[in-house]
Amino acid sequence: MLNTHDLLNVAGKIAVVTGGASGIGLATAELLASFGAYAILLDINEAQGESAVAGIKQQGGQASFYRCDVSSSADCQRVAADIDAAHGRIDILFNNAGIIRRKTVVELEERDWDLVIDVSLKGVYLLSKYIVPIMERQGGGSIINSGSGWGLKGGDRAAAYCAAKAGVVNLTRAMAIDHGAANIRVNCVSPGDTDTPLLRDEAKQLQRNEAEFLVASAGGRPLERLGTPRDIANAVLFLASDMSSWVTGSVLVVDGGGIA
Ligand code: NAD
After folding, report:
1. CA distance linking residue 225 with residue 233, whole number of Å
2. Whole-angstrom Cα distance, residue 239 to residue 105?
3. How many CB atoms lie within 10 A of CB 55?
4. Which helix (H) or strand (E) holds 185?
5. Where does the Ketoreductase domain lie (predicted)?
6. Cα 12 to Cα 197: distance, rounded to the nearest angstrom
């Protein structure tokens, strides 16, 4: 009889999660660790990152935290080298860190545009640039990039974010084509509205009542609720695991049916 651990085969794997201190990244790091992976959380929020690691360890998991701004080439290069030195491999990379500014092109200051693109799109390129060679050397790996429903269909007052996430979708396909021969799978998870600090902050940015904003965000989809961070983490676990061994270059939409 097969058991879940054997099917997933993530136990003992080294898994890097960017934006691991909060929301979807944190839920994914916790889930991977609960199946025996060593979770390495990267984030700019050190206090939250360290406390997330302590929480995972308390549950019996293995984890560590590195401060890394994914929009910084120097940070990405240093952290990839440090993890390689400490663990000798990186099996799973979840490029999850992202930020949103709820503004139209007219409202966006150039620095907002640059910040959203630098974190949400360039960050995927930068960390992958330094981690793909490690995966090539060891004979393979699984990379999951965080897209968004708005990277597929657009959305209101989030021009830079929609552009960044559409870029992540096609960057995923390009990476899957370039690195498939090295046995590196690259996929994109595309969450719908998920109850995290990022979503709640959107209410603030739009000067909307938070409770009303969350109810409105949950509506208009067949499964009439917001996603939970765990809903998205489950999909990432599938893409990270051997269960998706012949899946690459794909976009897995996890949104309660919100595409309609
Ligand atoms: P979150 O705000 O809860 O967590 C994001 C984490 O990223 C935070 O810990 C933050 O400190 C970190 N971060 C921000 N800038 C960083 C940087 N430069 N370098 C490293 N870390 C950085 O957000 P979340 O909702 O969990 O979002 C995770 C991903 O999911 C994002 O890419 C987001 O765009 C995407 N997403 C979220 C939703 C949603 O509704 N929550 C929907 C679609 C896509």
Report:
1. 17
2. 34
3. 15
4. strand 184-191
5. 13-183
6. 30
Q: Which of the residues are catalytic? A: 161
Q: Where are the domains of the chain?
A: 4-192+228-253, 195-226
Distance CA(144)–CA(31), nearest Å, equals 15
Instruction: State in Å: Cα 31 to ligand 1 middle.
Output: 17
Q: Which residue has the tokens 């401060």?
A: 67
pLDDT digits (tens, 9 = 90+) for 134-189: 999 999 999 999 999 999 999 999 999 999 999 999 999 999 999 999 999 999 99
Calculate the alpha carbon distances from 109 to 116, 159, 247 in Å: 11, 11, 39
Residue 143 CB coordination number (10 Å): 28
* ipTM rounded to 2 decimals: 0.99
Structure token pair of residue 134: 């490690």
- Tell me the CA–centroid distance for residue 22 and ligand 1, in Å: 7
Of the candidates 35, 41, 40, the one whose C-alpha atom is nearest the C-alpha of residue 10 is 35
Q: Is the CB of 148 under 6 A from ligand 1?
A: yes
Q: What is the CA(236)–ligand 1 centre distance, in A?
A: 14
Per the CB < 8 A criterion, the answer to whether 15 and 37 are in contact is yes
